[in-house]
Amino acid sequence: MSNPESHGVEDYLEAIYELQEEGERVVQARISRRLGVTRASVSEQVARLQKMRLVESNARAITLTPHGFAVAEDAVRKHRLAERFLTDVLKMPWHLAHQEANRFQSGITAEIEGRMLSVLGEPATCPHGNPIPGTGATIDPTLQPLKDFVAGETVELVRLLEDVELDTDAMRYFEEHALVPGARITIVDVGPDGTMSLAVGDTKSSLGPKLTDNLWVRPAIRKARAK
């Protein structure tokens, strides 16, 4: 577990926002897993957020108040914009963008944000395919996890869930094997344990079900044959 003191108010609000965005019911156990902190730390911080009127909590779920949602959305927007700036402008390796954006985003003022958007050409998503709040981009509700498909099918990778972005080794593997948004992935084989053998062009890879559950895709559109 990481040091709970290293996670501030915005970290918790971002985690709640992202879990809601992914369609998850937000409970303390899920926040604990997302942030890598103890349940006791989550309980303490959620109580603090309630006193600040940023969240509401009951036996069923934790939800953002309107004010909490606005604060969380602003933090998520800056984070995803920072990721895009780091990869597109500073040419930082794709797999390091999430980690470095956590450090970078706190210095983004409204003036800097506007200039970043202009330089980047008003991007709709972060480099990992997640929508940047405020751009009008939304998550396609027809997307499915890669693990739901079968051998012989070809899909287009659209987005990676935030959970897997926290795993730098997995992200490096994805980058090295061309498993990035926009990639056309052919499912070569699926083992009895759910492990998938994949191909992106001539690049081969193999992923277990925990990872394929975090890659969200849609059936690839057949390319028209040249006449």
Overview of this structure, please?
With 227 residues, this protein is of the alpha+beta class. It folds into three domains: 9-64, Winged helix-like DNA-binding domain superfamily/Winged helix DNA-binding domain (Arc Repressor Mutant, subunit A, Orthogonal Bundle), CATH 1.10.10; 78-138, Winged helix-like DNA-binding domain superfamily/Winged helix DNA-binding domain (Arc Repressor Mutant, subunit A), CATH 1.10.10; 144-219, SH3 type barrels. It is 41% helix and 16% strand. The chain has nine helices and eight strands. It has helices at residues 9-21, 28-35, 39-51, 66-88, 97-104, 110-120, 162-165, 168-176, 209-212; strands at residues 55-57, 62-64, 144-145, 154-160, 184-190, 196-200, 203-207, 215-219. The strands form two sheets. Strands 3-8-4-5-6-7 form a six-stranded antiparallel sheet. The protein has a two-stranded antiparallel ribbon with strand order 1-2. A hairpin with a 5-residue loop joins strand 5 and strand 6. Helix 1 (9-21) packs across helix 2, helix 2 (28-35) crosses helix 3 (39-51) and helix 4 crosses helix 6 (110-120). The chain is globular, with a radius of gyration of 19 Å. The relative contact order is 0.10. Residues 1-5 have low confidence and may be disordered.
Annotation, overall tally of beta strands: 8
CATH architecture identity of the largest domain: Roll
Q: In which range does the helix fraction lie?
A: 40-55%
CATH class membership of the largest domain: Mainly Beta
- Compute the gyration radius: what is it? 19 Å
* Largest sheet entry: 6 strands, antiparallel
In CATH terms, the superfamily of the largest domain is Ferrous iron transport protein A (FeoA)
Tally of alpha and pi helices? 9
Q: What is the 3D shape?
A: globular
Portion of residues in beta strands equals: 15-25%
Low-confidence segments, given as residue ranges, are 1-5
**H/E series, N to C?**
HHHEEHHHEEHHEEEHE
> How many individual domains?
3
CATH topology type of the largest domain: SH3 type barrels
